[in-house]
Structure formats: structure tokens, C-alpha cells
Design goal:
Number of domains: 2
Helix content: 40-55%
Strand order of the largest sheet: 5-4-1-6-7-8-11-10-9
Number of helices: 20
Distance between the termini: 31 Å
CATH superfamily of the largest domain: Glycogen Phosphorylase B
Number of strands: 17
Structural class: alpha/beta
Length: about 500
């Protein structure tokens, strides 16, 4: 008996979709080794957040491999996909595209603009055209490897125009976008020469996600300047906008971490061994911990000045408190970042030169990546976490620190300009990172805080993060996208591709 075309179409429409994550970088990176290529695991907050969502669910991850050379992948790509639990498809960028799209528009225009640092912007017109060109290249790759039934989830500011390029190529896909960094207020955003084009590109998505209600409000307010006739309706976390006969949903979805993974791994024997060594090496001194990527948005010089002031004002901190500042290398070939690194190292040298005494140095500075277990050991060892960015979309270090604080004896000092402050403000010590005296006072307050208050605050922080974890984040997003949860997507073993659909080409 033949199947009625209508029922066949309905079956196809109701078919469980795969998730296709699209980001600037893949969760892997390649580098030359000898005469071949070596595949390494990538790092960063976005990879940490998205990996547990895709793992073993038959999904795809599309992004740049980290090199502008043509890579002879051989079996390496299949091996990496098998290890990851999802299929990996690289986008290749030319050196010129990398220079103008990534180092240019993404990092000299959007990054400083969206962090309210307009004096650092370089509005070079060439950057904009390369931005569109590379976004179109991503759209082409999506069309090649995804299915019409897939859900395309585009991540972050590098790829705002991807949905627009898919539409221009007549590649019909359901699309969502999530911005991991802040969205600026109109008085900042309106300085962008391509402000209208960027907003129109965002409105090509079916769902636009932001970290906080404030970011969403800034976006809506910017729309009112460009298109005052657009109507926004709804209440709560998700609003709707009517655009050219389409409904675009706009929501606030604060991102989080895999709480159980951080908590359980930090309790494991490997971390315990490193933790014991750390405590022995500190000689009884408490740790105030900073973990940051080298970037001018992280408030690093201000933090060091605050710590120095705390030492100047409170001699009882001497030999009892050590700032461990981990600085992860980033864009080290960019002069502005080289200057920042030099300033940080100058301040570290000045502070250590001023206060070092009897084998105690007030600042332990590391300019390198920490291994996962080593990082968790520092999280567990630190009595205070100093998370003081000038502005940040969320800042997952704050949540990771709390998840690993198994004894619940730590204190979180958090910038009020981090997205995480909206969730954690009641139990963290909120500070203005520009207020050198205020941060210094917060450091001393954390050091002298009553143990019972510490425990009560940290307990509530951990409960909040445990409840609102990475899976809650993705479930909230998918529910807004099309009323599904992560568990509705097939596992790798359950996913059986429809061969007809795999071969289907978009016109």
C-alpha cells in the first residue's frame, strides 16, 4: 500500500532533527607536525559550553580548523568525529579572509564595540565586505553537509550574517543564533557604520538568544532606531517580533556549565593529588585566584592595582594571602595584546618587588594554559575567586569556581558588569572593577569573612548553578526554538540518517 503524499510530508516535518552547531572555531585545531598534521583538542568557553550538548547525539559541528593551509585530513577527521561523538566539518579560510574577517571585523570592530570600548574600534570598510564573504562561505558549508530537517544553531558574533547568506543561497533551514558577548546600548551600537545591515542580518534568524535581559533590551532599543514600525510583543524571557510576515523570537538565555562534571571531576583522585601538592607549596598562605584570557576586557591592570592597594592598606594580609593570576595566551601577535601583557607583567613585578618577604611573594603569575585537572585543583585550593572583567557576556570562570568549591569555604568576588552577576549577585561580593578602592575592600572583606557566612553564601551559589546548568540552558533555548528539549534529539546510536535526505540538494 502506497503512503499518501500528505502523510509522508507530515512524517518528514515531524522527524526528529539533528543539531548543527556553527561557530568560528571547531572544537579541534590542527597544526603541522613533521610532514603531516596533528589534531588537538580546542579550548575556550564556547567549546566547554557546546561540547556536552552535541556529544553522542548525531549532530554536526561546522567551523574553522585554525589554519589557512590546505589540510590533507586523511582519516584524522573521522577519528576526531568518533572521539567527539558528533561529526566535524571544517571551513577553510584564506590568509586574507582571516586577516580581514577575524582579526579585522570580528576583533577590531564588533568585539570592542559590543564591550563599550569604541575608541578601540577600526571601522575599515574592507573588513565589512570580508565579514560577509566569510559568512557566505559558512553558509555554503552548511548547505553542503546539513539536511533540511536539521536545526542550525549559529554561535556568536563572528557569524551574525550566516542566516542571511543561507536565505540568499535559497538554502531552507530553521536557524537560531546565540550571542555569547554583551549587546551594546543604542548610544554605542549606533556608531557602527553597518548598524542597519547587521540588525537586518540578525532578523533573518528564527530565534535570537542573548545572555541577559539587559542585552535583549539593548537589541530591541536599537531596532527602534532603525525600524520604528517593528512591533514587539510578549512577556517573560522570550518576546516576538513580526518582520516581513515572519515571526522572529528574541530571548534571554543565560549560559552555564556542566555542573556535575566539574563537581565530580574536582572530587576525583587526580585533582586531589594536585590539590595536596598545591596546598603544601603555598606554605599556609590563602589563595585569591584570577583565571583569564589575555584580553583588554578582563580588567587585569585594574585588578592588580586593587590587590596592591589591599596589601598597602592591610598589612595583616602579608604572608597570608597570595594572588595566583593565570593568564591564558590569546592573540599574542597583536600589538595591543602584547602591550597589555607587558603592562600586566610590569605590575606583577612592581607588586612582588614592593612586598616580597621571607620567601613569600604576593603574586604568583602564570602565562600559560592549565590542564583541566590542574585548573580544577586551583579552583579547589582558592579561598577567594577574583572575577572582575570590565564587561563580559557571562563569564563561566565564576560558575566553574563555585562548582568546584566542594568544601563550600570560598568567596566569589564578581564584577557587576559580568553577565553572571544577574544570577549570582545576591551571594557573591559584587564590585565595580573600575573602583580600585572598592575592589581592595572586597578582597579584605572576603579574607576576613566569618566561616559561617562563607559557607551559606557558597552553598546558595552552588545550588543556583547546579539548578541552572548547561543542559537547562540548551533546553530553554530549544523549547523557545521549537518546543523540544535536548533529550528529544537522538543519540549517536539512535540516529539513522535518511539516505534520500542525505542526497537531497538545495536548489
Amino acid at each position: 500500500m502506497s503512503t499518501h503524499p500528505k502523510s509522508e510530508r507530515t512524517k518528514k516535518e515531524n522527524r526528529i532533527e539533528r543539531l548543527v552547531a556553527v561557530s568560528n572555531r571547531l572544537p579541534i585545531a590542527v597544526q603541522r607536525k613533521g610532514g603531516g598534521w596533528q589534531v588537538q583538542a580546542g579550548s575556550g568557553g564556547l567549546i566547554t559550553a557546546i561540547t556536552p550538548v552535541l556529544k553522542n547525539r548525531g549532530g554536526l559541528w561546522i567551523g574553522w580548523s585554525g589554519t589557512t593551509e590546505e589540510v590533507d585530513w586523511g582519516e584524522e577527521l573521522n577519528i576526531a568525529s568518533q572521539k567527539s561523538g558528533y561529526r566535524i566539518h571544517p571551513v577553510t579560510l584564506t590568509p586574507e579572509e582571516l586577516e580581514n574577517f577575524y582579526f579585522g571585523f570580528a576583533n577590531e570592530v564588533i568585539w570592542p564595540l559590543f564591550h563599550d570600548l569604541t575608541t578601540r574600534c577600526n571601522f575599515n570598510p574592507k573588513y565589512w565586505y570580508f565579514y560577509l564573504q566569510v559568512n557566505d562561505k559558512y553558509a555554503e558549508t552548511i548547505g553542503k553537509y546539513s539536511l533540511p530537517s536539521d536545526y542550525i544553531w549559529v554561535q556568536d558574533y563572528h557569524l551574525i550574517a550566516v542566516a542571511q547568506m543561507l536565505r540568499k543561497r535559497r538554502i531552507a533551514r530553521r536557524t537560531g543564533f546565540f550571542l555569547h558577548i554583551p549587546f551594546p546600548s543604542p548610544d554605542v551600537f549606533m556608531r557602527l557604520p553597518w548598524r542597519a545591515q547587521l540588525l537586518r542580518a540578525l532578523l533573518e534568524y528564527d530565534l535570537i538568544g542573548f545572555q541577559t535581559v539587559r542585552d535583549r533590551r539593548n537589541f530591541i532599543n536599537c531596532l527602534q532606531y532603525i525600524a520604528p514600525n517593528l512591533k514587539t510583543s510578549g512577556r517573560g524571557d522570550v518576546l516576538t517580533i513580526q518582520v516581513d510576515g515572519r515571526t522572529v523570537r528574541v530571548g534571554a538565555f543565560p549560559i552555564s556549565i556542566d555542573y556535575e562534571n566539574f563537581a565530580s571531576t574536582s572530587a576525583g583522585s587526580a585533582v586531589q593529588t594536585k590539590l595536596h601538592w598545591l596546598r603544601e607549596s603555598m606554605g599556609g598562605s590563602q589563595i585569591v585566584l584570577g583565571v583569564d584570557r589575555l584580553d583588554y576586557t578582563k580588567g587585569l591592570p585594574e585588578r592588580l592595582k586593587s590587590f596592591r592597594l589591599a596589601l598597602e592598606r592591610h598589612p595583616d594580609l602579608h604572608r597570608k594571602l597570595t594572588l595566583v593570576q593565570v593568564l591564558v595566551p590569546s592573540r599574542t601577535d597583536v600589538p595591543e595584546y602584547q602591550q597589555l601583557k607587558s603592562e600586566v607583567e610590569r605590575l606583577v613585578g612592581e607588586i612582588n618587588g614592593q612586598f616580597t618577604y621571607g620567601g613569600w611573594a604576593p603574586v604568583l603569575y602564570m602565562f600559560r594554559n592549565l590542564g583541566y585537572e590542574e585548573l580544577l585543583a586551583y579552583y579547589r585550593a582558592a579561598q577567594i575567586a577574583l572575577v572582575t572583567p570590565i564587561k563580559d557576556g557571562m563569564n563561566l570562570v565564576a560558575k566553574e569556581y563555585c562548582a568546584c568549591n566542594l568544601e563550600e569555604e570560598g568567596v566569589l568576588i564578581l564584577s557587576e558588569f559580568a553577565g553572571a552577576a544577574a544570577q549570582l549577585q545576591k551571594n557573591a561580593l559584587l564590585v565595580n572593577p573600575h573602583d580600585i578602592e572598592g575592589v581592595a575592600d572586597a578582597i579584605y572583606r572576603a579574607f576576613t569573612m566569618d566561616p559561617e557566612e562563607k559557607k551559606a553564601r557558597m552553598k546558595r551559589l552552588r545550588e543556583s548553578i547546579k539548578k541552572n546548568n548547561i543542559f537547562s540552558w540548551v533546553d530553554a533555548y530549544l523549547a523557545a526554538a521549537f518546543s523540544k528539549k535536548l533529550d528529544d534529539f537522538p543519540t549517536e546510536e539512535e540516529y539513522v540518517p535518511d539516505i534520500r535526505l542525505e542526497r537531497e540538494q538545495d536548489s
